[in-house]
Amino acid sequence: MNHSLVLLALISTFGLAACDREPVVVNTPPAAVVVPGPAGPAGETGATGSSGATGSTGLQGDTGSQGSTGSTGDTGATGSTGSTGDTGATGSTGDTGETGKTGGTTRVIVVPPPPAPTN
After folding, report:
1. How far apart are CA 76 and CA 73, in angstroms?
2. pLDDT averaged over the chain?
3. Which domain of life is it from (predicted)?
4. How far apart are CA 3 and CA 10, in angstroms?
5. What is the pTM of this model?
6. How is 19-67 classified by DSSP, letter by letter?
7. Higher pLDDT, 101 or 43
8. How far lies 91's CA from each of 2, 74, 84, 94, in Å?
9. pLDDT tens digits, residue range 55-89?
């Protein structure tokens, strides 16, 4: 009996699925288009609005940081050698000295150094 109920359910499912049903079409009426009429007369000019309130003064900004130290400049070029001065004038000849005194009876003896050793 279990088989017959399953078989009956299967056959009825195929039978209902095979029916050709017509789709339902719903016709909606077109929307009414509203056309505006002629414009009316212009209204009076409105009153002038009041002035707005003055804003408060802004805060002062922070002080900026100090900049970096600049680079050291290059060393300048060495100057040229100066000109050499002219040769000075020759001085005058000095006076001739007086003749010296004659020596007495003293004699000076000069001892020669010893000879160098030979290798």
Report:
1. 9
2. 84
3. Bacteria
4. 11
5. 0.19
6. --PPPP--PPPPPPPPPP----PPPPPPPPPPPPPPPPPPPPPPPPPPP
7. 43
8. 159, 49, 20, 9
9. 889 888 889 888 889 898 888 889 888 888 888 88
